[in-house]
Amino acid sequence: MDEGAGSGSGPAYAVRSAPTGVGNRSSERLPVLTFARFEHILRCLDPVPAEDAHLVLGPVQVVELAALVADLGAAPLEVPAGCYTVRALYQRHLASVVEHAFRPPASGTRP
Amino acid sequence: MTDASTLAMRRPTASHAERSPMRVQAPPMEGRGVQLRRVTPGDYEFLYWLATARETGFRWRYRGMTPSPEEFTRTLWDGIFAQFIVAGGDGTPIGLVMAYGAHPRDGYVYLGAVAVPDEIGTGRLVVGTIVFIEYLFAVGSFRKIYLEAPEFNISQFGHGLHRYCSEEARLHDHEWYGDRWWDLVTLAIYRERWRTDGARLVRYALGDPAVDPQRPRREAGDGG
Questions:
Q1: Total structural domains in chain A?
Q2: How many angstroms away from the CA of B1 is the closest CA of chain A?
Q3: What's residue B62's pLDDT?
Q4: In this model, does residue A7 exceed pLDDT 80?
């Protein structure tokens, strides 16, 4: 069980972009979803979660959510199946942006 | 007959060009963080463990019974159309996907998938299964792919399955587990519906370069 704290959407989460990595081209940026946008894409899941209600994600929904986020070109979101609040999932998304930003570039990949 | 009308009919069109043998891609066997690799005799011990492990044995083929290793190996390929180890990027096995009971004449095949206990819930076997579905639709002229499982296995996948599958059959109180009878459910993934409803999942699972620019797409004839 992974729960988040607090309620409501706030401007504190409305970061729009983040650097992709230390030592990477500084012009490259990965979009960060606003909380409102993130809530919106969660509405594509079923059952539709109420704000800050608990959302049970099975393995298929884990991949669906990751695909929805990826389709927006945003930083990746990888969470295991489990029970989450919308806010907890959003915080995982933000954490994944940070993780992605500091991950060293894989060798052998295109620049 | 080589009059103008027949020559016009032979003129290559865009669709002809798209279907040129030079542009045919190998079936997908890699996805985001996973790969499908062939099963070899070196995997048999792992597969026997997977078929009899506490978390997976009662859900999988033998439903808690333990065949001898020899019997298990002898029947491992019975009725199989294709099966692959799903492995992580480092080659560590995380599960097995298999297609069995294929009826090429009628255009259907059954699909099974099982994850090692530590991978249940990570979504990586789902990604591997999506790659496998793409593989099956590429190499076989299947209209639909069946998933047949007791209800308690279906529920493991969460609420998302019905967006991609239709329930086609339900045998009530068909299998015993725990302290009750369970329905045996047959779901079907239709090729056409998969192409539309499953498009986003496929794009994600195959790591479309538009989504993951660090993963170059390879085509057959690329040396891969």
A1: 1
A2: 52
A3: 87
A4: no
Q: Output the CA angle B54-B78-B144, nearest 5 degrees.
A: 90
pLDDT in tens, B138-197: 999 999 999 999 999 988 887 788 889 999 999 999 999 999 999 999 999 999 999 999
Least Cα separation, residue B104 to chain A (angstroms): 28
Q: Is the Cβ pair A64, B156 closer than 8 Å? A: no
Instruction: Give B31-77 pLDDT, tens digit per residue.
Output: 999 999 999 999 999 999 999 999 888 888 888 899 999 999 999 99
Give the β-pairing of B30-31 and B144-150.
unpaired
Q: For residue A74, which residues of chain B lie inside 8 Å, CB to CB? A: none
Sign of the alpha-carbon dihedral angle for B52, B56, B58, B60: negative
Of A16, A39, A18, A15, residue with least CA distance to A90: A39
Q: Per the domain annotation, does A13 fall within a domain?
A: no
Average pLDDT, chain B: 86
Could you tell me the two tokens for A99? 């993780």
Please give the residue range of the domain that contains residue A93. Answer: 33-102
Is residue A93 situated within a structural domain? yes
CA–CA separation, B26 vs B224, rounded Å? 9
Cα A74 to Cα A71: distance, rounded to the nearest angstrom: 7
Give the torsion sign (CA, A63, A66, A67, A68).
Answer: positive
**How many angstroms away from the CA of A67 is the closest CA of chain B?**
5
Kindly determine whether residue A81 and residue B216, on different chains, have CB atoms separated by under 8 Å: no
CA dist B72 → B26, B36, B51, B64, B80 (Å): 31, 22, 9, 13, 14
Residue range B29-205 forms a domain whose CATH class is: alpha beta
Q: Is the pLDDT of residue A78 over 70?
A: yes
Residue B197 touches partner A, C-beta closer than 8 Å: no
The reported pTM is 0.78
